[in-house]
Amino acid sequence: MIEFIDVYKTFEHKGVDRVIALNRINVQIEEGEFVTVIGTNGSGKSTFLNAIAGKFLCDSGSILLDDKDVTRSWEYKRASIIGRVFQNPFTGTSPDLSIMENIRIAELRGLKRGLSGGLSAKNRQRYQETLKSLEMGLENRLDATVGLLSGGQRQALTLLMATLRKPRILLLDEHTAALDPKAAEQIVKLTRRLVDESQLTTVMVTHSMSQALDLGTRILMMHKGKIIGDIKGDERKRTKVRDLLNRFSELRKEELLDDELISMLQEGYY
Amino acid sequence: MTLWFGAISQGLIYSFLALGVYLSFKVLKFPDMTVDGSLVTGAAVTGILLVNGVHPLLVMLIAITAGCIAGIITGLLHTKLKIDPLLSGILMMTALYSINLHILGRSNLPLLRVRSLLTLFQSESFPFSQDVVHLIFFFLLVLIIRFIIVWFLRTDLGLAFRATGDNPAMITAQGVNIHYTKILGLAIANGLTALSGSLIAQYQGFADIGMGIGMLVAGIASVVIGETIAPGKKIKWLITGVIVGSILFRLLIALALKAGLNPIDLKLITALFVLLALCFPMLKKIIKNLFRVKDKE
Fold first, then answer.
1. Tens of pLDDT, residues B63-96
2. Contact criterion met (CB < 8 Å) for B159 and A105
3. DSSP state of A147
4. Distance (Å, rounded) from C-alpha A22 to C-alpha A255?
5. Does A116 contact B233 at a Cβ distance shorter than 8 Å?
6. Can you give the residue ranges of every domain in chain A?
């Protein structure tokens, strides 16, 4: 479903060397898998997601989605098979447009948009039904501009919009990180329901280890642009938060050791 | 009386410009300087074709098309060559100055005694004066264009266009090529602007190379007035507001001139007005803070 072959991506930052965001990533995600990606800050987990979405072109390597090589395909073209929810609740919706207009836009994701009108009474009723399932009272506010909604409501709407036209791939980029705990819980519940209902192939980036364990069928651990852990199957079922923490602290020890070793060697040399 | 008729007629004519500026400046968030040039392009094309006896309706369509092409080029500069919106417009406006002079052949082309859109609607059988006939004609044309724009902005393509300015990241994730929607919007905006230029040339009876100066600012002024008086946030109210805003703006100018304002100061006053309007949110905050400090004392 999703295949990364030797994907390499660096970013330029002013005043520093090029930062390697993805360091020869090789990974294969099967249809129907719900993958959670965890990692430290700057580990490349968001870059991994953006590489799937096509926000940038990679330096080398290839990306296959749905058995098609999309390595050089534009972001807006990939959108026909990808639904996305972002970390910032403001990113996923158009604030000046009404709830109904936003839903209509999402219903046509990846399709040709012409001069036909989708804001009909018939669609209104259909959207109302769909919005009811969110249990946020949005079904009576179809004409309200999205800018008036809370972060949690917007994120729920974005999630609904991302899955309205069933995507082949659903990408969730820390989509509960900017919400208060109660709203985050609601969004997690909704995510689980929507993904289960349509058996969506999902990749979710999260900073929360418990969330990574709570949701999904497979965990990818990232560090410094590399996938350093791939937990699936029976191992995934046995894994606890403590195991993940241990893996990361082991990593830190190794690095520390490396640094110490280097400085020792340097001292010995001089 | 003629003064008011004139002001309202001008307001109606310039409302196409105001609608264009609304689409580019407000909807796309693209301050498009091209309009200072494309307005003249509309007037110049109209002038030269009318003088050569082309049918006025055909002339109107050609003028609009010329404006659209100018908008498309600005859009290409911005999207494909990644040039800053303001600079793309300025480059295009500057280039258009020469092009417009070429079209006109000189800096001022009089259009007296040529067949124009306005003479089409002149007849001995009308019981009203010519001014009234013109006013009605402009009013009907504005009504038609208003209807088309409101309709367009609610179509699927129109929604994608509106979301492009509002949240480009979102609409890209929804599979829309924002290069396309931006170019489309700039084409429509400059087509409307050229229509204003075409009509104003026929109304005034001449096309002049300098008639485009300050048009973006004048358009923004009308949009600002329109947004303030619009009774709601719905598209149909905002679009209607912009049209009324354009009329009010021309009436204000007529009033100021009648009250003895030196015409030389007109652009200065307009610029100051827009400056005030743009700073209004900040000014409101400052004034609020001033009062808060006083309250504490």
1. 999 999 999 999 999 999 999 999 999 999 999 9
2. yes
3. G
4. 19
5. no
6. 2-94+151-239
